[in-house]
Design brief:
Blueprint lengths: L7 E7 L6 H6 L6 E6 L4 H10 L4 E4 L5 H11 L4 E5 L3 E3 L3 H11 L5 E6 L7 E2 L12 E3 L2 E2 L3 E5 L18 H11 L4 E11 L10 H24 L1 H24 L3 H18 L11
Parallel strand pairs: 1-2, 1-4, 2-3, 6-11
Antiparallel strand pairs: 4-10, 5-11, 6-10, 7-9, 8-11
Length: about 290
């Protein structure tokens, strides 16, 4: 079956995102199939959303990370297509229909994404910019950001979606790179737009702790990604300058009594060190 409203499920991984999730849900077509994976384990959020949206499936669990939670949602859905989105995105009213119309003509893809409406921050990467054909209404890209990815499950015969070793960051880049190595297509539809607020998913009440966690995991994931695809030495060469600069900045902010910045660079340093010695991505935000 081809892409249609009836053959599509939206997967939204949340973490105390009740301040923003309503805008996301309300931007989706009415009666959409939606699965929310709430990674905070907060039963109050589940009860609140179930009251507001009786038709939505909501799973509450401990924080297992973005990739693992997305995998859970993808495997739970009964449709051939799973649209992985972040809770801080909003769709234009015509976006889904434009994607459906597009796939009626071109369906040889593993991943399809709408385009960010913020041209300063594109949600895709094209390594060979000379390959861009401006006459087409879509782009053949190397990767797309994880905040909006339509997954064609039929293209994943092995059922290997996101690498669950990534807790946060680069799990989408890894998925895209694996599909490109398989010679599968990843498209961005230029006429279908989406608005991404960026970094607004968790509540601001936990801003500092979330930021510490992001810095730890960004560095861990950067090393793991490069090691996985290009080898340990390559990963070491790419991240060693960051390791050194993080240590220097940690000492500087220690001496200048800037506790927030000191901890930021401490987390970057520790994230890298843990990845370098082969430890799993174990750090969890203290919220």
């Amino acid at each position: 079956m081809s892409l249609s409203f009836n053959n599509l499920t939206f997967i939204i991984v949340t973490f105390k995102s009740e301040h923003i999730i309503n805008e996301c849900i309300n931007s989706l077509p009415k009666n959409s199939k939606i699965i929310i994976i709430e990674n905070s384990g907060d039963e109050k959020i589940k009860r609140k959303l179930e009251k507001e949206y009786p038709g939505i499936t909501i799973v509450i669990q401990k924080n297992i990370g973005m990739g693992a939670a997305n995998n859970k949602g993808i495997k739970m859905c009964k449709t051939d297509y799973a649209f992985v989105i972040n809770p801080d995105v909003k769709f234009e009213s015509s976006t889904i229909q434009k994607m459906i119309n597009f796939t009626a003509k071109i369906n040889d893809y593993s991943i399809l994404a709408p385009i960010s409406d913020n041209i300063k921050y594109p949600n895709y990467i094209i390594k060979n910019i000379n390959s861009i054909n401006n006459e087409l209404d879509y782009l053949d890209v190397d990767s797309v950001d994880g905040f909006a990815m339509l997954i064609n499950k039929k293209s994943f015969e092995d059922h290997l979606y996101f690498d669950e070793n990534f807790f946060l960051f680069l799990e989408n880049d890894d998925l895209c790179l694996r599909k490109k190595k398989e010679m599968k297509k990843i498209y961005v539809l230029k006429t279908a737009k989406i608005n991404h607020l960026g970094g607004k998913s968790p509540s601001g009440l936990f801003k500092d702790e979330i930021e510490y966690s992001r810095n730890w995991h960004w560095m861990w994931s950067k090393f793991y990604f490069n090691q996985k695809h290009y080898g340990y030495i390559n990963a070491l060469l790419k991240t060693l300058p960051t390791l050194v600069s993080s240590k220097i900045k940690f000492i500087y902010y220690l001496l200048t009594c800037n506790g927030y910045k000191r901890k930021i660079y401490k987390m970057r340093f520790l994230g890298l060190v843990n990845a370098m010695v082969g430890k799993k991505s174990w750090y969890r935000p203290k919220v």
